[in-house]
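Q: My labmate handed me this sequence with no annotations at all. I'd like to see what the chain might look like in three dimensions before we decide whether it's worth expressing. Could you predict it?
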Amino acid sequence: MPPDFLIYVTECQSYDQRTPYAAIRPLLHDLLGVESARRSGTRFEELLAARVHQLAPAFDRFLPCSVMP
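A: Here is what I predict for the chain of 69 residues:
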């Protein structure tokens, strides 16, 4: 029986060490579907709000937030 979770792996180059969240940015983009949103013309803020509402509605009160993709 397969596990009930997924394992994601990411990496960060040394030149990104001063960039906040550089190591997890590609992972978050994959999990949130940022690339598919860009192709469909959906704004990142709308995508983020929809995913937050879907996964953790209690955090809706923290939106909108200023997050750059």
